[in-house]
Design the sequence.
């Protein structure tokens, strides 16, 4: 094929194949190509990627062991480090650490290279290495958004809430006109630091920008709940389609607000919906508190009400005996008989 005549074209086609589940075909194709065409970057990088995708660690290690990949040397070292780590052989951890540090040095703090290493570390599940690299990349405006998005996904997967709060704030500051970023930060801030006035302001602004968006609505409703205005928050939620509120992440907040208003029957379906989902830790904590309040409310409603105590009947008492009769007084004496 025409692509086989030019290393750049070969690499581009291999990249497409690797990204579309055809890594094994890349390796088969490589066997038919002249070694001089694929032994150096950019094709050499794509072949290393194919070995990694097919989990052929021994071949990956041999492929990246010798030679120099010039400007892509840092990638050769990174793939070699990963092959050593995945081989699980004796001393693999020490070899991996040494090679990975060499890869970082070879990147020479160039943002584009750091970003390439960070993408590999993220793809390979090397969270510690990825976080360090993305934090460096985030200092450079052209790649800041990609870096922050990547850090958000890593910290969300780890459920590292303090770092997640920091990253959501930085994302909002990097794009202050995006209501979704404002709402994400506001909701986390309201759950983790509910006294923040900034979070309440952002929640209101995001809702006003798109009042029919379920995420914006529940964030503002949560803000109103935190301010002691639960009734107003419920009015917002009632304007949303019921199916939107039945999504587990949204149902947590609907249940919380209904229970706060002592509306147990309306809260029950949302509690059930929330319990079926994979909630984030901060949402699970809120749901647990809501379920406890619901149980207390249900117990109070079903408890028998005390009845007024009935009087114990007493036996009838005899009337007191009259005092002994005295002699009638002259005024009370019967009149004398006419025959006397």
Sequence:
């Amino acid at each position: 094929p025409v692509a086989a005549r030019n290393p750049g074209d070969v690499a581009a086609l291999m990249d497409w194949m690797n990204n579309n589940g055809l890594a094994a075909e890349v390796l088969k194709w490589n066997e038919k190509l002249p070694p001089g065409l694929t032994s150096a970057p950019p094709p050499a990088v794509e072949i290393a990627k194919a070995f990694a995708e097919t989990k052929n660690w021994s071949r990956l290690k041999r492929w990246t062991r010798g030679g120099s990949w010039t400007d892509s040397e840092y990638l050769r070292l990174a793939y070699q480090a990963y092959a050593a780590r995945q081989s699980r052989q004796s001393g693999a951890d020490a070899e991996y650490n040494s090679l990975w540090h060499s890869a970082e040095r070879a990147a020479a703090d160039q943002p584009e290279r750091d970003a390439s290493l960070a993408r590999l570390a993220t793809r390979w599940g090397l969270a510690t290495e990825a976080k360090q690299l993305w934090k460096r990349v985030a200092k450079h405006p052209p790649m800041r958004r990609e870096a922050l998005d990547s850090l958000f996904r890593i910290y969300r997967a780890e459920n590292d809430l303090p770092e997640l709060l920091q990253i959501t704030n930085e994302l909002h500051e990097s794009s202050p006109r995006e209501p979704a970023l404002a709402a994400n930060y506001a909701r986390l801030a309201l759950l983790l630091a509910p006294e923040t006035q900034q979070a309440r302001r952002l929640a209101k602004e995001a809702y006003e920008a798109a009042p029919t968006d379920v995420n914006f609505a529940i964030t503002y409703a949560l803000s109103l709940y935190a301010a002691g205005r639960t009734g107003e928050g419920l009015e917002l939620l009632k304007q949303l389609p019921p199916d939107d509120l039945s999504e587990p992440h949204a149902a947590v907040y609907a249940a919380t607000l209904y229970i706060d208003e002592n509306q147990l029957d309306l809260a029950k379906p949302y509690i059930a919906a929330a319990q079926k989902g994979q909630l984030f830790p901060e949402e699970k904590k809120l749901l647990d508190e809501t379920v406890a309040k619901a149980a207390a409310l249900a117990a109070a409603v079903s408890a028998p009400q005390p009845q007024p105590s009935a009087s114990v009947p007493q036996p009838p008492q005899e009337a007191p005996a009259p005092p002994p009769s005295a002699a009638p007084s002259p005024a009370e004496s019967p009149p004398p008989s006419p025959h006397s």
User: Anything to note?
Assistant: Residues 108 and 114 are 8 Å apart (CA to CA). Residues 323-340 have pLDDT under 50 and may be disordered. Residues 1-108 form one domain.
